[in-house]
Queue: 2 jobs
Job 1
Amino acid sequence: DGGITQSPKYLFRKEGQNVTLSCEQNLNHDAMYWYRQDPGQGLRLIYYSQIVNDFQKGDIAEGYSVSREKKESFPLTVTSAQKNPTAFYLCASRGRGSYNSPLHFGNGTRLTVT
Amino acid sequence: SQELEQSPQSLIVQEGKNLTINCTSSKTLYGLYWYKQKYGEGLIFLMMLQKGGEEKSHEKITAKLDEKKQQSSLHITASQPSHAGIYLCGADHNNAGNMLTFGGGTRLMVKP
């Protein structure tokens, strides 16, 4: 079955360390997205990519970086510059330019930084 | 996102009761999506609305988009404990298909 796989499900890091969250999809979708969700809040867009080797900043890109070397993969790095990195991170994908199609989501990675 | 407001933020209903969740945009919507989320999990797609006045139903859940395409409602009939979770609306505010913004979510609890 096609879908989006995020790993790991739980991640613990010490403050000051960079950490990379994995997102892989086999839906053949061109566009991929990273969202952040804090307790009791909705989703905020970090970065998105509509095509390989291209990506754009979302609303809260500071302290994060991404790469899109392959269509299937869109890893997110949470850098030490991110002031409040503890959150639930969700990866999603959709067909390119498909404003009339829903996003498909992974099951998320919960990052805790102490 | 301030572009998309959901109400109420939380809701507790008795099993068997009906309920409505609202999603309001300050801009015209090109697409409106409803999702359900269990705590600590990803979002499950429920329904998509695009045309003004459009209404869709699945089992006991009905979603509507107003004629002006700025407001949507999600109505659950005869609620069950399985309906509990967080409901989020998401929207395309342009036709480029690049960004999807989300409301703050509505946390629903259904008391048996």
Job 2
Amino acid sequence: GNSVTQMEGPVTLSEEAFLTINCTYTATGYPSLFWYVQYPGEGLQLLLKATKADDKGSNKGFEATYRKETTSFHLEKGSVQVSDSAVYFCALRSYSGAGSYQLTFGKGTKLSVIP
Amino acid sequence: NAGVTQTPKFQVLKTGQSMTLQCAQDMNHEYMSWYRQDPGMGLRLIHYSVGAGITDQGEVPNGYNVSRSTTEDFPLRLLSAAPSQTSVYFCASSYSDRGGYGYTFGSGTRLTVV
């Protein structure tokens, strides 16, 4: 079946530090890959996406590259801010059987950025 | 443009009670789904719908029912609440269940069953 594995948190960084959150996946076919962000007390928001190998998704200074050879989609940001403190979810959409395409989420990585 | 609206935001139920969590979207999305979020478990799919009149089970459907009589609404019914159903519930919608279309999430319903 499809699955997503994220690095476990929590991750605590100082402001302006470099961020990497690792994400690897197992999927049938050619999945689309996503990063979602959840701020405290809110629902998830789409952060960025990539739909084919070697695509780079980017938004708000975050970026991730779809690496089919390593089945990875690591999230990076060059300089984090306190406002980036949130939980980040890696997700994939692929065929999951019986005509169904479902979004499968990782367990989430909590990021705390301190001034 | 309201997006996905979930009600209520908070609810406390007694074991055995039933209730309906409401979800409505105004984006004319065909695909709608319900997830539950539990600590350390990520999000798990309960039920989903690819269009009005069509619903199907996800990963953890037991104890929940859904219906989709209109494109806009996708209510989730708890038939007989149990403490194991204490969770945060999210409704999400998308233009399609395929490809690179992202999901739009509601702000969630925090349910406690005592």
